[in-house]
Design brief:
heterodimer; A: 334 residues; two-stranded antiparallel sheet; globular; B: 256 residues; six-stranded mixed sheet; four-stranded antiparallel sheet; 10 helices; 40% helix; binds adenosine-5'-diphosphate; binds magnesium ion
């Protein structure tokens, strides 16, 4: 009993709701004051793109980390979101928010479609399907010239607006993306620490055991693909309206693999790990800019060394449940 | 009342008749055992009952309803859960999480409820943690709730697998060689536990290799050999059945 108490106290220290709230408040504080203190357009630009990648990384983590499916096609949804939103806003109805919601929705549909093969195949085979999906999307974007303008991409995508007020400074965009990051990360955190999230881990650990317990694994797998695709689509929409220019090269399989590398370095399966991984691998090339010639070399060496010494990532998934109920604690105390 | 009825069940793997024309009924509340030498088709029969395989021929009924075409998770939803001959825990997860996953079908939160963590989901999550801890308490594993399942002893893993299958309050529990690989002491403990479960009204279908275990606990026994049912009866009837003796002696000549 002492032992269980200790473990509980420990896990409480790390994860308790109070601390979650504190982390939340602290990050909110940092996000609010950061652009005021560092009003430097280069730094803000990097951090805005970092926000985009955090959404991509943490959402991919649900499929590739929590559910354990090797998904090499995440950038496809990023691209679908970017194009849908741009085309809609420029040709149909000039409202960024509706464009973003539509981007999320269409990506969700494509995610459902990509989820279907996951019912039948797993592992390496599914990896190839997702890779192929990413390539198909890229070719469609390249070749449907009349709609997507092919390799030239789409120029002059309008910046986001709020009630007719155009958000076009770096500061405003910084706030917009990081608010999105917080909302999306909170939703995904709830998702993974719930009945739904547990089914995903169960699928990763042992699909046969999971179905024997009454889990309709296919349904949850497909929804995991779909929901995280929607988040990637939303990130794509933001990206398009922030950069004001997109082309198919932004959404290649290389991009998908890079995102997978990021969360692997951070710790697949762990939300915090994914966040850390994305941050390190995204900022590193920027920090190494002064020694530009050796940049990719150092980057590569870092990856190898990292995987040798910390194969499960900087912040591996912890299997201590994050919710320990108050009543269970009070029983413990008595 | 029959809780489960098998009617002419066969399963062929590319011409190999793993199970051939097996029929029997299990009564509500009994411990029913399937025995037979290695390779007799016991596990295959379990996989058919649990919906993991669909039978090549035959039909199966649970509580009077035809469940032949249900998929495995649907069979579990109806109230049949199982353990595996080679333990299949979620071994990297904590003991507690294993039981929480076992509670899955009892929880009602939809995917959207989970994403939003609305009040319904919050309440349910709180309750299921308590319930899982209580279940672990009944088998003396509450202390180990936060250990990884793979760090448990073999006997504890067996128990955890059973309680995980029981979490959703099934009506029929399938146990595939629950004492396999255990020493005598551990085996006795498990047998005692099976009896206790049965005394609460749970119907149990037990596969066993070990004759001694079966004879002590079973109300009815079916013996399989090369996929076919060669005997059906109470423990004493089975013990004196010539075909059964032959099947077991035959086996010991061949490989043991
Ligand atoms: N998936 C499968 N594919 C092919 N043959 C199988 C399969 N599962 C079981 N068998 C064969 O069916 C026979 C019965 O196996 P099994 O049901 O595991 O026996 P038991 O549990 O009684 O030891 C064995 O000959 C086994 O090799
Ligand atoms: Mg077997």
């Amino acid at each position: 009993m002492d032992r269980i108490k200790n473990i509980k106290q420990m896990s409480n220290k790390i994860f308790s709701r109070l601390n979650n709230n504190m982390i939340f408040a602290l990050s909110l504080f940092v996000i609010i004051i950061f652009p005021i203190i560092f009003d430097n357009s280069y730094i803000l630009h990097i951090l805005i793109l970092l926000g985009v990648y955090v959404v991509l990384g943490t959402s991919l983590n649900v499929v590739a980390g929590v559910m354990g499916e090797l998904d090499l096609g995440h950038a496809a949804f990023f691209g679908i979101g970017a194009y849908i939103s741009s085309l809609f806003v420029m040709n149909v109805f000039d409202n960024f928010w509706i464009g973003m919601i539509l981007a999320g929705f269409i990506s969700l549909i494509f995610g459902l479609l990509l989820g279907i093969p996951s019912l039948r195949i797993r592992g390496d085979y599914l990896a190839i399907v997702t890779l192929g999906f990413n390539e198909i999307i890229r070719y469609v974007l390249l070749n449907m010239q009349s709609v997507t303008n092919g390799p030239m991409g789409i120029k002059g995508i309008p910046s986001p607006t709020i009630f007719g007020y155009v958000l076009n400074t770096k500061q405003q965009m910084f706030y917009l993306i990081w608010v999105l990051v917080i909302i999306i990360v909170v939703v995904m955190n709830r998702m993974t620490n719930s009945r739904f999230g547990r089914t995903l881990v169960a699928i990763r650990e042992d699909q046969i055991a999971a179905t024997s317990l009454g889990i309709n694994t296919g349904k949850y797998e497909i929804w995991a693909f779909a929901i995280t695709a929607a988040f990637a689509g939303i990130a794509g929409s933001f990206f398009a309206h922030y950069m004001n220019f997109i082309n198919p090269n932004n959404f290649t399989t290389n991009e998908s693999i890079l995102i997978l590398c990021m969360i692997t370095v951070g710790g697949r399966g762990s939300m915090i790990g994914s966040f850390i991984g994305v941050t390190i691998l995204f900022l590193l090339p920027e920090l190494l800019r002064p020694i530009a010639d050796y940049r990719m070399l150092i980057y590569g060496i870092m990856l190898v060394v990292m995987m040798v010494f910390k194969p499960r990532g900087f912040w591996p998934e912890k299997r201590i449940p994050s919710r320990i109920t108050k009543s269970a604690e009070s029983k413990e105390a008595s | 009342m029959d809780i489960l009825k098998l009617d002419g069940i066969s399963k062929h793997f590319l011409g190999l008749k793993a199970v051939e024309n097996v029929s029997f009924s299990i009564k509500q509340g009994e411990i029913f055992s399937v025995i037979g030498p290695n390779g007799a088709g016991k596990t295959t029969l379990f996989n058919i009952i649990s919906g993991h395989y669909s039978p090549t021929k035959g039909r199966k009924y649970f509580e009077g309803k035809d469940i032949t075409n249900l998929r495995d998770f649907e069979v579990a939803e109806r109230g049949i859960t199982r353990t595996f001959q080679n333990i299949r825990l979620f071994s990297n997860l904590t003991v507690l999480e294993n039981v929480l996953i076992g509670l899955h079908i009892k929880l009602k939160s939809s995917i959207l409820d989970c994403l939003l963590r609305n009040s319904k989901n919050k309440k349910e999550e709180d309750e299921c943690y308590d319930e899982a801890l209580e279940l672990l308490d009944t088998i003396g594993l509450k202390d180990k709730a936060f250990e990884q399942a793979k760090n448990l002893s073999y006997g504890e893993q067996r128990k955890l697998e059973i309680i995980r299958a029981l979490a959703s309050k099934p009506k029929l529990l399938l146990l595939d060689e629950p004492t396999a690989g255990m020493n005598n002491f551990e085996a006795k403990e498990i047998v005692q536990y099976i009896k206790e479960l049965n005394s609460t009204g749970l119907t149990i279908l037990l596969i066993e290799h070990n004759m001694r275990v079966v004879m002590g606990v079973s109300n009815n026994i079916v013996v399989l050999n090369y996929g076919e049912k060669i005997a059906h009866g109470t423990a004493s009837e089975i013990q004196n059945n010539e075909l059964v003796i032959e099947a077991y002696l035959g086996r010991s000549k061949k490989n043991d």
